[in-house]
UniProtKB/TrEMBL annotation:
Gene that this sequence comes from: ppc
EC number: 4.1.1.31
GO MF terms, alphabetically ordered: phosphoenolpyruvate carboxylase activity
Active site: H156, K599
Subunit structure: Homotetramer.
Protein name in the entry: Phosphoenolpyruvate carboxylase
Function: Forms oxaloacetate, a four-carbon dicarboxylic acid source for the tricarboxylic acid cycle.
Catalytic activity: oxaloacetate + phosphate = phosphoenolpyruvate + hydrogencarbonate
Keywords recorded for this protein, A-Z: Carbon dioxide fixation, Lyase, Magnesium
HAMAP family in the record: PEPcase_type1
Family recorded in the similarity comment: Belongs to the PEPCase type 1 family.
Species whose genome carries this gene: Comamonas nitrativorans
Highest taxon of the lineage: Bacteria
Amino acid sequence: MQAIHSAAGTTPPPSQDKDKPLQEDIRLLGRILGDIIREQEGAAAFTLIEQVRQLSVGFRRDHDPEADRQLKALLTSLSTGQTVSVIRAFTYFSHLANLAEDRHHLRRRAIHERAGSAQEGSIEVAFARLQQAGITPGAIAQTLAKAYVAPVLTAHPTEVQRQSILQAERDIARLLAERDDISARAQLFAGSKDALTPRQLAANEAQLRARVEQLWQTRLLRHSKLTVADEIENALSYYETTFLHELPKLYASLEEALPGQDIHSFMRMGQWIGGDRDGNPNVTAPTLELALRRQSEVALRHYLNEVHALGAELSMSSVLVKVTPAMQVLALSSPDTNSHRQDEPYRRALTGVYARLAATLTQLTGGREAERHAVAAQNPYGSAAEFLQDLQTIDASLSRHNGEALALHRLRPLIRAVQVFGFHLATVDLRQSSDKHEEVLADLLRTARVEDNYSSLDEAQRCALLHRLLCDARPLRVVGAQYAPLTVSEIAIFEMAHKMLQTYGREAILHYIISHTETVSDLLEVLLLQKEVGLMQGTLDSAESQAQLIVVPLFETIGDLRAAASIMRDYYAVPGVAQLMQRSGGEQDIMLGYSDSNKDGGIFTSNWELYRAELALVEVFDRLEADYGLRLRMFHGRGGTVGRGGGPSYQAILAQPPGTVRGQIRLTEQGEVIASKYANPDIGRRNLETLAVAMLEATLLQPTKPATPEFLAAAQQLSDASMAAYRHLVYDTPGFADYFFTATPIREIAELNIGSRPASRKATQAIEDLRAIPWGFSWGQCRLTLPGWLGFGSAVQAFLEQPGTTREGQLQLLQAMYRQWPFFSTLLSNMDMVLAKSDLALASCYSELVADTALRTRIFDAISAEWQRTVDMLALVTGEDDRLASNPALARSIRHRFPYIDPLHLLQVELVRRWRSGQNDDRLKNGIHISINGIAAGLRNTG
């Protein structure tokens, strides 16, 4: 396959020599893939795939319409078997190209750092800025002492990768890095006739071939739908490969940058998998228990491995070195009586530590760890703090007796890991929709003869009743009564949460998120359910009451965001609530949902209403902090795509409204974005570093100054016009929903086994009921990427033509906003990225799936017109006619990728047409689903 291995089929100009290693990696991987296809699928298959590649590259590179015509004619003439073969080839190439690009990203970053020019989002750049601003290391450490940063992994169904595929790709990434190391050594010893290098490269290539061959022979798709247990295991794999190892390295880098300062463990991990029930009936009390048990097992087995390795390393003899009295006590208390280790206090102590950890593993998870026991498992730790204390005793002894170097490599990272991950690994959030809580309370109140029809009460009546019950010491449940299945299931979740907190510690579950929070009663209901099972101790009117879970409202729709501040103000005005939260830790998380607000009102209005809501909430909590010491923490429900709040996290955090970060931020990491950010450990550490330094810069440098009244007024006008244009097309245009369900592969996506959650909230074809994830995923697959830009073009056009103003004056105002206001410039930069990934020509191929010619023409023409308006208006405001002018790395990536994604789109359309016409060949369906995987991999942010 002559050049599935030729990157983009072009030779880079001399100015792009820095990308030569990327080109070489892609050629290497493409050559290996081509050889495997020729050997295993035959010369004819190889020749066909190469013909498709040449035509696609020719069209993209030379804009040759004849190549486009020939390509489409060829692809529509293929048999089902040939089609699936071509789809598989280009899908695997997309995966391999991702790995090469990730390697090149790390390579370029290392080159910059060696040259003394660290990149944006790094500790080096951030600390240089802080130092220049006169902020001392002590002030930075004090900020970290009060900070809380948490990426939260969720199980939203956009992750199209199987674990076996991910593992093979991790191996390929490691082998690519190894090639760089071999090449670097060859350069270092140039002229020394190092004969090993060619053999090493050949051995490396042989291993690469084995892994690529494994990929080719491994099924890309799941035959059965993911279970919640599968999703738990998928998430845990990232802890094993990345988080457990890389987070301690991040802290070590911070300690190096802040010598002599005590660095608080401010960055923790969060998890929704196993606790998020909103719209997912498969999440129950047993799955919550499973999630925490498996999380604990992963953490404890990591600790056991590290303690075992420490035992091998810390072989010092008491004949040669001294130990502290505390270390002596720890060694003497060990059950290790082996005579060979009697003069090795550290080994004896670690044998005892291992025995206690092994017993803890069995006690908390039922797991066994017998293979390395020097002594029997015994005396489990009562808490992670006890284990930590033993490790710190060993560390203090080493530090005091010339063993500092021995502590740095493994012991200190282990200590940090225990501080961060405890015995629970990650904080599991609970989430449920507010209407489900209402149903449960209605059932409990009716059965208890307190209120026959709770749902019929108005808001004031509900709040009064809930407050009275929160101040009543008696429970609601009636012994022996029969409750609805939902009530039984939901109460079981609360009871399991109570049990899990007792088992795994306070950090195991901290937050209870209420989807669709619309009223104060939505919050009080969850407080009452906590009280019902003992998660809230005491009554609301008592001076000793505490709640173990933070009740977290999730404001999602445009209407919810607009009401957020008043809801929170009224909630804390309920007698006893502020005092309860003060006693319960003084923290209040508020989650902001990007997905539904975007689907509701379009990208500009969604972002603007989020901005306004944050400012309004800060104003409310400034008063609450002054009166009760309550701290506000924003939790950003960012999705993978820009249309769901995605985009670069660093810029997004720095663009937050002034005063809204304050050292506190949580944000979701979703779908395939988790793999792209954290599957590679080095890239994972860089992404974690970016979150940390963005928080520091946003808190201490406050790069986002308050916007001028003129900017704010202009944004409001743009939002109003954008939302009107968006809703006119999406909700008010007859036939738009029919067009969407026909001209995108939404129906085929819903059949993919890529998550345990249904694609729609209800069994309808109403856009209102569709989940935001498949909504965005589908528009990405057909390359319209509509949620990421729709409405902006019309909004700017209307703003420029506003009566009583001049076009020149209005444009100058927008250009000033772009230059001076991070909120506006970041939003436009994200739109730029989305538009760069869109393609009207390919989208028009998908529109041909709509049989109704009049409907197809009417809707597609309307979309195309708004797309062109947005492109024109964006260029006018930014002054940049070319997409991604300010992001050459992404522009390069897209330029290389598109020729290899085009055939996947064209074949997907052809197969969907055949499938929907009634050709019920399972190979057709399989081909469609593989093409979805390949396009998702090629575009890299689909959901």
